[in-house]
Amino acid sequence: MLKSAYVEEVFTLRAGDRVELLGWVRNVRQHGKLVFLDLRDSTGVVQVTVKTGVADEEAVKTASTLGREASVKVVGRVVEDRRAPGGREILCERLEVVGRAYGEYPIKPGVGPRFLYDNRHLYLRSPKVSAIMKIRSAMVEAARRWFIEHGFTEIHCPTFITAAVEGGATLFEVNYFGRKAYLTQSVQFYQEAAIYGLEKVFSIQPSFRAEKSKTRRHLTEFWHIEAEMAFTELPELLETVEQLISYMVVETVEKRKREFTELGRRFNVEVVEPPFERIKYEEALNILESKGVTISWGEDLGADEERILTEQFDKPFFVTHYPKEAKAFYHMPDPSNPRVTLSADLLAPKGYGEIVGGGQRIHDYKLLIQRIEEENLNPQDYRWYLDLRKYGTIPHSGFGLGVERLLQWILNLRNIRSACLFPRTRQRIYP
RNA sequence: GCCGGGGUAGCUCAGCCUGGUAGAGCAGCGGGCUGUUAACCCGUUGGUCGUCGGUUCGAAGCCGACCCCCGGCGCCA
């Protein structure tokens, strides 16, 4: 039987079966008329042995001229051999070159991270990057499934916008036929409009931030999972977030076991078992105080404070009720203490920091105008947003989740860039 | 934007303190090898030492300015 197969199948077929594999040559080891090829495809790597007596002279000759990453078609038999990695290899009978590798392949052992990002278009072929991308895909798929199963409608919002969601944040400016426009940093406002028809909505799309951040947690373009819910107040929002996060992580870990192993990463799913602890901003200050860090009330938690705080927890936890001066104007003031807002951030443990940010929105027209003016913003810029409060306003809440941040945490990635196919940072827009 | 580290062969780096005319490993190329696992052995190509200026008989190394990269902070997901 001549059979077209994927590399992973080699390890489940019977010894002696003949297969036809298509893939790329990861490495070549030559011993005169015995040549070993490490053949890679999207499912794994297998050793192909090309030797005279099994393959013809021509195949051995061809094999010995192959460079790294040449694409080939191999026909051969699956054999058990203790000397082969994984205990199995392909004894090559026929070898065909699909595409040669011209010149030396730049990606090889010993190269540094910078070089790998300069050559990301090639490095993507590595099993490690493939594993991360498969995990990422599974994670986003799980999120989408969870939303759909819970009655949310997926909506797609514009990327070009005219005004900032949050006054101070830095936006990328684009020339929109002579008018000033910006790239979106959140679809929240559009989602707030959409809930009047759909009640529960979610979006999975990129957001852009022009902040000049130079850290391993920041991208200028990142994938943002956002949701907005009508008739929802803070406590229900927190439950939604913890259910979603838990589902996403557990599903991903269970469905992508092999990829986690490939990356040498284990994730204990008990860590994301709901409920997550909720602490108020004020309690966070007390915890910090007990660790010898004092910040004045009203100040936002800085990176150092966040790190110290997250080190006290093994599971993700919510920090709620931030002071209104630390949050954007649309956050709902707490009726029982108007100095604070019905806001919440979900912080990952052990220093990974903010994964989700959200809260209850102001739904009262007058209060919203008042808050816009207090922040020295112009209500004219928010006309349609204010309109939403004029016709049948309702309490509502929403949140945003950083896909790469969540991946960075569950995969323990040193740098957020490795969670992206082609990362975009302040310094990098190529390749 | 502020602070710290860095830029030397295709890649990873040493040399810089103490100035004397550029090195290693890997990769490449040629040759050898029938059981390698990032194979090994022999041979070999390869450098505006980030840029500009200064000091000096002489600068990769000292001094000054600038450019670029990485990270920490601020800002945030």
Write the layout of secondary structure elements.
Layout lengths: L3 E2 L1 H4 L7 E14 L2 E8 L2 E8 L5 H8 L6 E10 L7 E12 L13 H6 L1 H4 L3 H23 L3 E2 L5 E2 L11 E4 L2 E5 L4 H11 L1 E9 L12 E10 L3 H22 L1 H6 L14 E4 H10 L12 H8 L6 E4 L12 E2 L2 E5 L1 E6 L4 E8 L4 H10 L8 H5 L8 E7 H9 L20
The chain binds one RNA strand of 77 nucleotides through strand 2, strand 3, strand 4, helix 3 and strand 12.
* CATH H-level superfamily of the largest domain: Bira Bifunctional Protein, Domain 2
Q: What is the class of the largest domain in the CATH system? A: Alpha Beta
CATH fold call of the largest domain: BirA Bifunctional Protein, domain 2
Strand elements, count: 19
Oligomer: single chain
| Low-confidence runs | none
User: Any idea what the CATH architecture of the largest domain is?
Assistant: 2-Layer Sandwich
Number of domains: 2
C-alpha termini separation: 43 Å
Largest β sheet strand count, sense and barrel closure: 8 strands, mixed
Mean pLDDT: 91
Task: Supply Rg.
Answer: 27 Å
- Fraction in beta strands: 25-35%
Number of helices in the DSSP assignment: 13
**Class computed from helices, strands and strand pairing:** alpha+beta
Question: What is the gist of this entry?
Answer:
InterPro entries: Aa-tRNA-synt_II (IPR004364), aa-tRNA-synth_II (IPR006195), aa-tRNA-synth_II/BPL/LPL (IPR045864), Asn-tRNA-ligase (IPR004522), Asp-tRNA_synthase_2 (IPR004523), Asp/Asn-tRNA-synth_IIb (IPR002312), NA-bd_OB-fold (IPR012340), NA-bd_OB_tRNA (IPR004365). The chain contains 13 helices and 19 strands. By secondary structure, it is an alpha+beta fold.
